[in-house]
Amino acid sequence: MDAICSARYHPKVHDKRNERQRRRDQRQEEHDRKILEQENITLESMMRETQHKDVIRELNLRFRVDKRDTPSDPPSETVIAAIQRRIDEIALLEILDRENKQMRTRFVDCFPDDIPHINELPTDVYHRFRLKDPNAVIARRQYECPKKYREAWKTLLQQHLAAGRIRPSSSPHASPAFLIPKVDPVVLPRWVNDYRKLNANTVPDVHPLPSIAEILSDCGKGQFFAKIDMTNSFFQTRVHPDDIPLTAVTTPFGLYEWTVMPQGCRNAPATHQQRMFNALRDHIGSICHVYLDDIVIWSQTLEEHRQNVATILECLRKNKLYCSPKKTDLFCLSINFLGHYISANGIEADNKKVEKILDWPVPRSASDVRSFLGLVRYISNFLPALAQHTLVLNTLTTKEADKDFIWTPAHFDAFEAVKTLVTSRECLTVIDHMNMGANRVFVSCDASDRCTGAVLSYGETPETARPVAFESQQLSGAELNYPVHEKELLAIVRALRKWRVDLLGIPFTVFSDHRTLENFTEQKHLSRRQARWQEFMSQYDYTITYIAGADNSPADAMSRKPLPSNAVLPSAIGLIWEATTALSTRVSSIPAVAAVSTLQIRCDANWITAVKSGYAVDSWCSRLLDSLWDPIAQAAVGDESSGVLSLGALTRGWLDNRTETESLCDWVCYMLATVW
């Protein structure tokens, strides 16, 4: 055996093997080089062209190793082509980054850190206030100012005075202003103007927004793209001298009036849209489109894109419109615009509009099925084929299903089929901003104890409107403790943020089943949170209308969308706390349970069955099961551990016949896997 081993590992044998391996490597390299020569390119030239020697070296190494060790790999030509594509992509990204920097340097005045002084703004375009009642005088008292914000007030006033955006006023009009602190305590608070009374007396500007379908159709022709976002767009336009007194606001240090468009006035978005359209009128539809304060540019070649971007920036410079350095991308291969992903490969719709339906969890109770079908019935008129699937699910909405909920594969198939139909093109529609005609936009909102929901729809009436998008979002942290009217208001705010592109610049109706919100725009006393929301909502042209809860089923269904089966509901948290509190009192009254943390009890199957059946008569356990457990998991219970409620290592047991084992335990330590 020793002789055999020594012969197997003899150095000369190793040398011969190494020599054979070197010859194979040389043949492989020669083969690779011939292939590269046929393609009229060499690895060295690729290195020099892209300046990515390390990338080429790594790819070349991987290429040789793969060819030796995996004979089933693709042909050499395919691998070389993949390497070539990656190299070209890296080189192109470097070129685009270099072009972006050069273009920003060339038009550095279009990307300021802050808006220039008012004297540098154009004097041929103004924002006007058209009033329903020109004789109405709005004079409201100043809100109380916390002393800790007085220095912040002084700083903000000095900044705006230095930029010429405000000036001392003697106007008879006065709207209150206040500060809202930001998350970062070092940053100055945000100045908010409460123009609700002024907005109510303002005639809305109905300047039309461009068609999203037309924008996407044009953008789909491009290979290179740019996206430009404006910075502090409202502060870039002067207020007409005759209307400046209407903007007067009260502060802790006197009355001031705005000389530029202030935040919170009703028609400011329409004014800015019109100004952008006028500045780029000659190029809209050919190389660019404008939507509110966003500009998108597309081109077929890099040279063409360089010229198009320079043309648009030159127009912005001429009209003294300024861009955001952080939110602008001038040379891109793909962009996200108006809820769509646009690239040379085409346009992909944003699945977020329907993802709240697609990820709807499997119902765990009859109540969950009713909520889901409540949403489905809202759109059943558009999908006649829906009935055959909902018929299967209707059997789980009866009173019998409340007691004995059994989910079968047939129910699951019907559930998935319904979700597919609801999110299909035959059901959903889009808002045609250019040709609305008799159609209107509706936003239905609702809130539950743990979730907010909303549905965006478009049509002539609420009854005939078709859905555009769905939204559902859980409440978290402090939001769970909001009063009911603030939860309902939060549902509206979330919907407006989510669908800003669809809603900004057009009138729409918000439906809520909380009647007090109809008067929100006239509410005198606002909390800081409500004031922040009011300032955000002031840029929209909306009307809040009360709707009975029974008629608001789509939004109600979204707000009561079931949580995933592994989620702990707020109600369950309270039950867990109840259990731990009860435990501390029971331990003190039952000395025999003092060793509960170390005692392990082995129980037979009959005892476990008695414990599980005892949950039905225990109010605490039955409430926890209703709020937490998945019926599929309940149906799958087959072993001892999966059927017992467990809090860490602590298990609560409750027996049907407590007299037999009451002295044994109400609480037992039973080392089982937890169910959450």
Automatic annotation (TrEMBL):
UniProt domain Reverse transcriptase: residue ranges: 161-342
InterPro entries, sorted: DNA/RNA_pol_sf, Retrovirus_Pol_polyprotein, Rev_trsase/Diguanyl_cyclase, RT_dom, RT_RNaseH
Region (Disordered) location: 1-31
Keywords: Endonuclease, Hydrolase, Nuclease, Nucleotidyltransferase, RNA-directed DNA polymerase, Transferase
Feature: compositional bias, Basic residues: 9-25
Pfam families: RT_RNaseH (PF17917), RVT_1 (PF00078)
Annotated PROSITE patterns: RT_POL (PS50878)
GO molecular function: endonuclease activity; hydrolase activity; RNA-directed DNA polymerase activity
Name of the protein described by the UniProt record: Reverse transcriptase domain-containing protein
